[in-house]
Design a protein that fits this description.
The chain is 44% helix and 18% strand. By secondary structure, it is an alpha+beta fold. Strands 1, 6, 7, 8, 9, 10, 11, 12 and 13 form a nine-stranded mixed beta sheet that branches. The protein has a two-stranded antiparallel sheet with strand order 2-3. It is elongated, with a radius of gyration of 31 Å.
């Protein structure tokens, strides 16, 4: 692996084909009056509408990504806005409601980029410009998401729940013949180490000066690279993903037009499913942290958690997404970056512990109630039995027997056994 300082600069490179998808958390005010379904990109006779894209995914995954008849979850709106070297092609909104956040949504903006791509990615990540020459100011002016979504949705404050610190970006760049750091050495040749470094820069939205990769740990950082074919690779990180071509793009009619289409559609949807899973796991984690804030409602809170976990597992928790391998690998890479499998297993283990605690408290409550019935019933039953044997029907004697049984019960409750019964009963009631 070459040293980070030897990596050829990418910040001044404009690829032969540059596409960018930006994903923003949003709060959906109402269902937009836009066409339903994902954005139907077209390439020749291929149209990537909902029926076409749904064939790539398992039915459960397709339902959470595209909705179902009569229950739309996704809308799109074609655009043609040019500003500051970017061209906005369209907008999508995906309803991503959770149990506690019914207005949660993801806004998806599709761009083509006509200026060096890395400075655009750095600006979207909140990094300062590398030079003062034509710095990219971010999504401003006619590309401001607040204006684009006005009246339909609000882009969430980064401090709000579910917010990611910066927009999630998916970059697609193909090289020309002069971009040798990204090119494979012949159709079946080896990739240079610099190709991985360029891919890292696009996915991490950083230069070697921003984040110099140590040679000793570079392989660990690049472990989620997906080599889709000899022509291109992908890398998924926490805040961004990138696709990079490894042979010169010949332009119109090249395979990379199909690759770009896939990166905007099927592969985007795989990452969107990962984002939905992350948001639900974040909410479950937050619910877990509040289980003991109201001890008297412990049983109710644990039952609600178990119900939410069951809904999440049945609707969202998928690790096998499709029969098409790269989409599965991208989803697994996203899950790995956010530690979703490990976090979900921790949630399951913690909820199981809380469920056992609730069961223990309920058993204590039942035992305490039975103990109280025993303490109350034994003196009273004995007194009434004696009166019945003696054939005594006197009301005064009955009242005396009741008073004596109450006194006996009070006396028993002061004993160690009585105190234990009362303590068990209080413990059980405190868990409701």
């Amino acid at each position: 692996m070459t040293a980070s300082g030897a990596v050829p600069p990418l910040d001044a490179v404009t690829g032969a084909r540059q596409e960018l998808t930006v994903i923003l958390p949003a709060r959906l005010h109402r269902a937009p009056g836009w066409p339903e379904g994902p954005f139907p990109f077209e390439l020749g006779s291929r149209r990537t509408d909902r029926p076409t894209r749904a064939t790539y995914f398992a039915p459960a995954s397709a339902r959470v990504l595209y909705g179902a008849p009569g229950r739309p979850l996704r809308w799109h709106l074609p655009q043609d806005v040019k500003h500051d070297g970017l061209r906005l092609l369209g907008i999508e909104l995906l309803r991503a409601a959770t149990a506690n956040n019914p207005e949660h949504a993801l806004a998806i903006l599709h761009f083509s980029v006509e200026r060096p791509l890395l400075p655009v990615l750095r600006a979207l990540s909140g990094r300062g410009p590398l030079t003062t020459a034509e710095p990219f100011a971010g999504l401003t002016g006619r590309l401001d998401p607040v204006l684009l979504l006005n009246g339909v949705a609000d882009v969430r404050d980064p401090a709000a729940p579910f917010a990611i610190s910066r927009p999630y970006t998916i970059a697609f760049l193909t090289p020309t013949a002069r971009h040798t750091p990204a090119l494979r050495d012949g159709p079946e040749g080896e990739l240079p180490d610099t190709a991985d470094r360029w891919l890292w820069q696009l996915a991490s939205r950083s230069t070697p000066q921003d984040f110099p990769l140590a040679p000793e740990t570079a392989r660990e950082h690049l472990k989620d690279t997906v080599h889709i074919s000899a022509d291109w690779s992908a890398l998924v990180l926490r805040q961004g993903a990138a696709f990079l071509g490894h042979r010169p793009d010949t332009g119109e009619g090249d395979f990379y037009a199909f690759g770009a289409l896939h990166s905007r559609t099927v592969y985007l949807d795989a990452l969107l499913l990962g984002a939905l899973q992350r948001d639900h796991i974040d909410e479950l984690t937050d619910e877990l942290s509040e289980v003991f804030t109201s001890p008297r409602r412990l049983a109710r809170r644990v039952a609600a958690l178990e119900r939410n976990i069951a809904l999440f597992r049945s609707g969202y928790w998928r690790q096998h997404l499709t029969a098409h391998g790269p989409a599965n690998e991208l989803l697994l890479a996203f899950q790995n970056q956010h530690r979703l499998p490990a976090r979900f297993n921790e949630i399951l283990a913690e909820v199981a512990d809380y469920s056992r605690l609730v069961q223990t408290q309920e058993s204590q409550q039942i035992s305490g109630a039975l103990g109280i019935l025993t303490i109350l019933g034994l003196p009273l039953g004995t007194a009434l039995g004696i009166l019945q044997v003696l054939g005594d029907d006197s009301l005064s004697h009955l009242l005396i027997a009741l008073a004596l049984s109450v006194a006996a019960t009070a006396a028993v409750l002061t004993t160690r056994y009585g105190r234990l019964v009362l303590s068990s009963l209080r413990g059980g009631l405190g868990g409701r």
